[in-house]
Specification:
Its EC number is 6.1.1.18. Helices cover about 35% and strands about 20% of the residues. By secondary structure, the protein is an alpha/beta fold. The strands form 8 sheets. A 7-stranded mixed β-sheet has the order 12-27-28-29-25-26-13, with helices on one face. A 7-stranded mixed β-sheet has the order 23-20-21-22-14-17-24, with no helix packed on it. A 4-stranded antiparallel β-sheet has the order 4-5-6-7. Strand 27 and strand 28 (about 530-535) form a beta hairpin.
Amino acid sequence: MSTKERSLNFIEQIIEEDLKNGLSNDKLRFRFPPEPNGYLHIGHASAICLNFGLGIDYNAPVNLRFDDTNPAKEEQEYVDAIKRDVEWLGFKWANECYASDYFQQLYDWAVELIKKGKAYVDSQTSEEMAQQKGTPTQAGTESPYRNRSVAENLDLFERMKNGEFEEGTHILRAKIDMASPNMIMRDPIMYRILHKHHHRTGDKWCVYPMYDWAHGESDYLEQVSHSFCTLEFLPHRELYDWFLDNIYDDKKVRPKQREFARRNLSHTVVSKRKLLQLVQEGHVNGWDDPRMSTISGMRRRGYTPMAIRNFAETIGIAKRDNLIDVSLLEFCVREDLNKITPRVMAVIDPVKLVITNYPESKTEWLEAENNPEEEVMTYRQVPFSKELYIEREDFLEEASSKFFRLTLGKEVRLKNAYIIKGESVIKDAEGKITEIHATYDEDSRSGSGSEASNRKVSGTIHWVSAAHAVKAEIRLYDRLFLDESPDTHKDKNFLDFVNPNSLKVVTGFVEPSLTTAKEGDKFQFQRVGYFCVDRDSTPEHLVFNKTVDLKDSWEEKGKKEENTINNSLKEINKYFKVTTDEERAAIEKTIGENLKTVSNYSLLQNSLKKNINNNKASLLFSNWVLKYSDTLKASDVETELLHKLYNMSLKSESPFVRLEVLQNLKKDNVNSELFKTQFSEMKTTEKNEAVLKTLSELA
């Protein structure tokens, strides 16, 4: 075990207990068993770090075993990508194995089970089998083919193997217990017919083993001591052990399956099926698109192996599924890149800055530090001239005292260069600023030691010399999904939450030192973020991917949206205190505009749920969410919850709440009958004139 001083997680405790009970340390063996039907994602990265990390800590071999039992979905491309990803993360496997290595042995063992009366060929349709499977509270019924003779089963199974039958006509099932409380034990499928070309065995086999049959037996053949998998396989453990019981030789190590929780990542999906859908439907540009949660995508975006390993270690291993905020992963990336990336200057939204009193033909080469985190500081030379590019957002023609960048009449320092003062601007016909004119203090050059160089100014901005600037394509990547958990909402397609602004491509300028940058090279664009060179980049056309911002802009956005919700709830109380329609209209307009800015679906949904109560301010707020939000609509809310809101609102003491719910009911087609009923009732009972007026308008 590692000598690092830390408490053991429950997986390590299991291993330590087994060693204590007599398992020899040299019998420890682990495995990582991916199915080659897609690229690995961040969830797999955690599993890789767990299994290979245990191998390192216990000095035990770890096999990379491909669960290649379904040729309909598996490809050599995925095998190669998986190997690449594991190696990139920094791990080495002891043996490269495949479930297909064991097809003959698995088939022979299946024959032995048939001979023992523990497996049979079933000829029902999949629909018939589903009907006779039963429910969690009701026992299943036996297949009419369950008691076929051994001879008939052996004959049928061999003919299945030889390709005599069409797909779906027969399967091989284990004969266990159709009344088992664990539905997985109700005669599970062991083999199905597939007339598909296998990427390793070609057309040799026409029957392929199911995962449950191949997995534990592959572990046993490789003498894996501990088989770790995610929690959804907990009910499968009983079957894992049942299969082993029927082939186990007590002279060998018996594998032990144990389960750990998935660590789901916010603002993404980690289902291979959904990732494949994103690729096939063109929402992203391939499995290695930098917006994808795949290891290949993260590598292309500029994430580092160390950052991902640190992330896996930080979140640890747990027994319950958990949603991890992607901000934690981004923090790990930012922390690692901060140590290793050189600082450079790049302008991604350029506007020209002309220093009017700087000599026309003069060029200076100024010294700039590469990375302040280095133990031994190194420097590079950057050119400075009369005309520069700066970020458009770093200048305001008129600015408040809290604006610490360039404005007219105020001074700011150019990074590694001089102090300048904004003097005037030139605009185009549409009023857009095309040039900023400034003057510089010749004695204020950074590092010169002069009195002027030590003068304090309100801010520092970055720049690139226009004469030396290198044009570059800059891909500004953002989170692929707007919602923190896009695939967990009932009656909502996860694609509904795709961020339309997850990629923005701009043309910017970078300093000339970057002309020699190669694919994968990483940099900090000062004051902007971390970037890496994309594989599409060439010396003639540089392409950079944004890896991560310098700060967590999403956390700031999240806090801002939470504040918007909280402030709206406070403001809404004033609505009931003011006395004129004009004042109420102004308050509603402000709150409505604020609600339109909130894009966090889960935040809106949770806020709505919390505010469906008998408080008039809460009810008005909930109705306004449905009225003004562009993100959450009435059709997104559970029917029972929506009816609760409507019923409470209709009975509210406040006529303003009753007015709003009437209007929401009118436009909510799902609840048109409820509207008609309440409309008729209120016409005869309502006394408030404003409500009566609205009733007549809605009639």
